Amino acid sequence: MSTKPSHSEEEFFAREEQEKKHQFHKKQKQKNDQAQRDLQKNLHFMKCPKCGDDLKSVRISFVDIDECVKCGAMVLDKGELDKLKVADNTVLRALVDVFKKDR
User: Fold this and answer.
1) Gap between the Cα atoms of 40 and 33, Å rounded
2) Which of 15, 18, 70, 75 has the greatest count of CB atoms below 10 A from its CB?
3) What does pTM read for this prediction?
4) What is the pLDDT, as a whole number, of residue 46?
């Protein structure tokens, strides 16, 4: 003899199913977002923000600075300017002089 599920049981299983779907879609969105971030990183990693050409690493003092092979733009990552200040004031002055010459 089979018993018909009560209304509260139907609601419980409907909520469980809805929660499973919600969790599935949440995980899918996280995967898609991560894939999008990875794609953007691959497209822009070590590319010049000015002209889009490749960047190469150049060591100044003990800090690696990225320099564009085409236009010569120098790109400092977060914290690199502070490292240069601490490392050697003359290097910082030389960099400032380089930027002042172009103006």
Assistant:
1) 11
2) 75
3) 0.51
4) 87
